[in-house]
Amino acid sequence: MNPRYERAARILYWLVPPVWGLALYWQGLFTWFQADNFAWLNLQVHSWNDLWKALFTPQAQGTVRIWSERLFFIVFKSLFGIHPTPFRIWVFLAQIANVFLIAQITCHLTGSRFAALSASILWISNSALTVVMGWNSAYNEALCAFFVLVAFFALLRYIDTSNLWLNRLQWVFYLLGFGALEVNTVYQLLAASYTALFAKQYFRKNAAAVRTGRGIHLNPFRADSQSVRRSVWFALCRDCSRDICNLLDMGGGLAADRNPRRH
């Protein structure tokens, strides 16, 4: 290919998805604070003790979303006051980062830049993003996606290179994701499914380590269901685990109702 055309194609590859996203959601840059935004804007921090309470006191069904709700509103309010535009710009930047990550992951998996471009455009075109692009309190969804995508990309690179630092990077971003949104737990299924289908040596290696107890690789996923559950509890902080506990109890109750024990 002509170097000039190749350069133009590379520029379009990086430029088209974010420009398309701005074309779809540009009005979201100018939305005012709504609903739950005011509760987070009202956090009063005048001392280290106030900061601790603001960051870690459970809110909204017992959740503790440190990065995506507490720090997001505290930091931006302290820097910009109650001007919504900086909040909105930050959310848009997070989504642009997600678009680039999706493109990189797709290109890595398929070897096709066209597939990567298509995946990123389709993702940003999803109507489910409308709320995120127009409401600051939904920033947790964008940030959680960012942590999941970075962790998964680190896993892919770790499988290719066997670089332990990439494996640790996966671990770090996986754990950080719990400070954004509790559905971060889905990453374990994503990582375990990928390794089971396309990198069985890593899946089996974890299984052997867990079963024998001779050492567990630094991975946020495990091969058997019991160790998967244990890794969830290890990753979640006490407050964030409340919702997961309720779900497990509900599932256990349903299973007991369907399969009553005979005495």
Chart the SSEs and their pairings.
Elements: H1 3-25, H2 37-41, H3 48-56, H4 66-80, H5 84-110, H6 113-124, H7 129-132, H8 139-161, H9 164-176, H10 186-198, H11 200-212, H12 225-235, H13 241-258
Helix pairs in contact: 1-5, 1-6, 5-6, 5-8, 8-9, 10-11
Commentary on this structure:
The chain has helices at 3-25, 37-41, 48-56, 66-80, 84-110, 113-124, 129-132, 139-161, 164-176, 186-198, 200-212, 225-235, 241-258. With 263 residues, the chain is an all-alpha fold. It has one domain (3-258). The protein starts with a helix and ends in a 5-residue tail after the last helix. Helix 8 runs antiparallel to helix 9. It has 13 helices and no strands. Mean pLDDT is 78; it is low at 209-218, 220-248 and 250-258.
Low-confidence regions: 209-218, 220-248, 250-258
Helix-strand makeup class: mainly alpha
Count of helical segments? 13
Q: What's the gyration radius in Å?
A: 21 Å
Tell me about the biggest sheet? none
Give, in order, the helices and strands.
HHHHHHHHHHHHH
Count the domains. 1
Q: Please indicate the percent range of residues in DSSP E strands (runs of 2 or more).
A: under 5%
Number of strands: 0
Helix content: over 70%
Mean pLDDT across all amino acids: 78
**Span from first to last CA?**
75 Å
Q: Which overall shape is indicated by the principal axes computed on the Cα atoms?
A: globular
